[in-house]
Amino acid sequence: GEGISLSAGAVGSSDNSVENIQVWDNRLQLTAMPGGENGLGLSGIGMIVGDTATDWYNPTYQPITYPEGNYIRNVSVEGNSIEGPGSAGISVSLGWGGDRQNAIQDVYIRNNTISHVGFGTLPTYGVYLTGGQAESPVGHQRTGENQMANVVVEQNTISLAPAARNAQSGGVSVQGGEGAQLNKLSGIWIARNDIDPGGLVGVNVIGGILAGDLPALNNTVSHVEVWCNSVRHMPDRNTPGFDGLKGVTVIGGDQSQGNRVEQVRLVDNLIAGRLDDYVNYFVTANYGSLASGNTVQVLQGRSGAAQPSSSAGVLNAPSLRPSIRLPQAPR
User: Fold this and answer.
1) DSSP code for 36
2) What is the pLDDT of residue 307?
3) How far is C-alpha 147 from the geometric centre of its chain's CA atoms?
């Protein structure tokens, strides 16, 4: 669950839209939900399109209906304070449980304070952008073919306090999909954030991640600018599964296949007191014994990099505005 939730298209609903929303200056105190350390965790502020098919809530209902054609657009999340044992401070998700062809565009996450987030054995995130997760439990349709474009994560203060260490976790985490396929995330700006990752990765960009026994397949994350962030500490190297991970980590596929991470630019990031030191960056196409056919492209230097504007809700950089075809609003 979420303290504040923006949702377009839940439980098989299609062709819904949420647009032109400002979530400003709220204070949220998170508490763990029932179920012990393996139970569900909270997100402080969450956005999701395509939140599960009908078989998630009623396995016997026929025909199974999948959420499609939903979108969220033009959302500003600024000046909020989020604290406590949740699994994520702010999450932006392209769906869950078999949704397809949904979209999120033009999201601005600025000047928020996220403190002491972390819960049980769940992955932990300060700001979490994902192409979606898993498949429907009865129909076994994978989440996929969703799109996210033009997301700014800027000048947030993030500290994590995870009870467990998960390799995909991080202060700011961008993931093409978890057990999902054919999602596209592009035009992501991560800049001037102050991150204490609590033994985790500060910023990670991952094309696709295994979810249970489902590998992520053929997702694309592109045009990502990671600039001028401060990551206070390197990850805890004694944590199993953290082989090689560093303050800023870029992975094509984690135990997954055919995912692409393209045109990622890393500039002037201060990691554990060292400025823009590539010793503190970890970049690999394939991570884990099951990973294959993934690719990564990292660009160096400032040439051609996009610059977001200072005013909320407006982005002037054309290179951070990839064209995506949003669903038509219902009439």
Assistant:
1) G
2) 43
3) 12
